[in-house]
Amino acid sequence: MTAVSSVDARTGEVVATVAAESTAEETAAACALAAAAFPGLEAMGRHGRAALLRAMAGALEAARPEVVRVADRESALGDQRLQGELTRTCFQLRFFAEVLHEGSYVEAVIDHAGPTPMGPRPDLRRMLVPLGPVGVFGASNFPLAFSVPGGDTASALAAGCPVVVKAHPSHPATSQLCFDLLASAVRETGAPEGTAGIVHGGPAGLGLVTDPAIRAVGFTGSLRGGRALFDAANARPDPIPFYAEMGSLNPLVVTPAAARERAAGIAEGYAASFTLGAGQFCTKPGLAFVPAGSPLREELARLVAGRDAAVLLNAGIGEAFSQVVATLRDRLEVVAAGPDPLSPVLFAVQVPALEGPLLEECFGPAAILVEYESEEELLGALASLPAGLTATVHAGEDETALPARLVTVLREKAGRLVWNGYPTGVAVGHAMHHGGPYPATTSALHTSVGASAIRRFLRPVTWQDAPQAILPLELRDEPPGIPRRVDGTLLTP
Question: How far, in Å, CA of 455 to CA of 214, rounded?
């Protein structure tokens, strides 16, 4: 058996053996246990599952010092960042508990029997129901918020779907610790055994995607890894939804008016954004479109040159970053860079040369200034970009014409449009959309953050002329205390 080791991200030393890689039989057993848990988890109802999510948040909070300590050792992200990430992780769990209590996510609709212009209509009642067991892949760059106890897990469990998580090899000890805490909450609330499961190792990931018990998958990671697993999900005899978030370039545009009005402030915000978390955010604004000759260039050069080298999440990410930077150095002008190979680095290019490897995400503290000469050149370059998660516009105080043209182009390229801000940091709320057209994700229709993330793990079912005793509580005549659309009218409790 291959050992799964915990590595200190700062020293590169192996500090513990966490587990052995899951065998095919162990992966299948975890999936089978999740399938067996599915009816019982759904039967807990909305309020029972809300109690489960709250218990999970409480277990994580109670172990906060140990969770942060282990996560910092494996990621080198630092105490402050990880304290905030754990707070976000617990908030996500409690947020979905509130989503369950409120209940509108089931989209309950009732059309009573009666006459219509097309003839008599039967009694029709429709709502969303859980898909079944879900596979979740932890992300390297968020060992808590997008990993074992992260948003995919929270939204799937809220939907009523048991979860089997593929632990990320960058933080296996953190993953196992968090899983053990979630499992304690499962026992505490009386949820079925198998509500939460975990597997380790690369082969287990493929086994998870192809196991017949798994009905959907949530993934956060690289384009190459996500695409390979997406293809495997679609090659099954029964293809399943594979919701992959795979990163993006996230263009940021500074109009000439904005550059004239507040170059120093934009430069400060941009430098902080693309180096945040050592540039290891899927929302990092990797391309900044600025007017040629703008003082932004000099301001950014000063800010970037003074930043310290980063400790990246693991040796593989560090090596890949160094290779990409070496390639870019051969093609581009270096505006600013520190002395260390892992120091933040800022490149510059003119719009006509924006092609090839310049249009691929660089995971790490690097960014490219794209200098444009005219509005038409800018709009043409934006239209040629691959789609992404976000697009940002910095406009002048009273500017309207160019920003309107920019939004027309950028709306087709991203799932979130940011105005006079920076895309790093994704708030958890009802209005958030964290997704975008391919290749940012495999489904532009869905989000992995916010209340609507639950929609990925639900499917619609209509009951026709069903007796009251057969109907789910949300569709019975007695008001269930949730918003419903009845005979075309939206009713709220």
Answer: 17
282 is catalytic: yes
Q: How far apart are CA 156 and CA 171, in angstroms?
A: 22
Alpha carbons 459 and 463: distance in angstroms, whole number: 13
**Residue 432 contacts residue 449 (beta carbons within 8 Å):** yes
Q: For residue 245, indicate whether it is catalytic.
A: yes
Closest CA to 329 of 316, 343, 315: 343
Q: 197 in helix, strand or coil?
A: strand
C-alpha distances in Å from residue 16, one per residue of 73, 141, 383, 395? 11, 20, 49, 51
DSSP string, 336-376: EE-SSTTS-EEEEEEGGG--GGGGS---SSEEEEEEESSHH
State the catalytic residue, choosing from 282, 299, 362, 371: 282
d(CA 434, CA 266): 23
3-state secondary structure of 201: coil
Sort strands 489-491 and 484-486 into parallel, antiparallel or unpaired.
antiparallel
pLDDT classification of 310: cutoffs 50, 70, 90:
confident
Could you count the other beta carbons within 10 Å of the beta carbon of residue 220? Answer: 28
Global confidence as pTM: 0.96
Cβ–Cβ under 8 Å, residues 192 and 37: yes
- The mean of the pLDDT values for the chain is 96
- Which pLDDT does position 247 carry in this prediction? 81
What is residue 339's predicted lDDT score, i.e. its pLDDT? 86
Give the C-alpha separation, 89 to 428, whole Å: 10
Query: How far is residue 159 CA from its own chain's centroid?
Result: 17
Name the CA radius of gyration of the chain, rounded: 24
Q: How far is residue 112 CA from its own chain's centroid? A: 39
DSSP string for 71-93 = HHHHH---HHHHHHHHHHHHHHH
Residue 372 amino acid letter: Y
CA nearest to 54, candidates 194, 197, 196, 186:
186
Of the candidates 218, 208, 210, which has an alpha carbon nearest to the alpha carbon of residue 153? 218
Cβ(96)–Cβ(49) below 8 Å: no
DSSP summary character for residue 23: P
- Residue in 42, 158, 45, 189 with CA at minimum distance from that of residue 96: 158
The answer to whether 321 and 284 have CB atoms below 8 angstroms apart is: no
Mean pLDDT of 286-291: 98
Active-site residue, selected from the candidate residues 245, 299, 371, 474: 245
Are 407 and 417 contacting, i.e. CB atoms less than 8 angstroms apart?
A: yes
b/e per residue, 425-448, with b = 16+ CB within 10 A? ebebeeebbbbbbebbbbbeebbb
Q: What is the pLDDT of residue 308?
A: 86
Q: Please give the torsion angle defined by the CA atoms of residues 39, 43, 47 and 49, in that order, rounded to the nearest 10 degrees.
A: -20
Q: How far apart are the first and last CA of the chain?
A: 56
Name the token pair of 31.
Answer: 């999936």
Helices (H) and strands (E) in the chain, counts: 13, 21
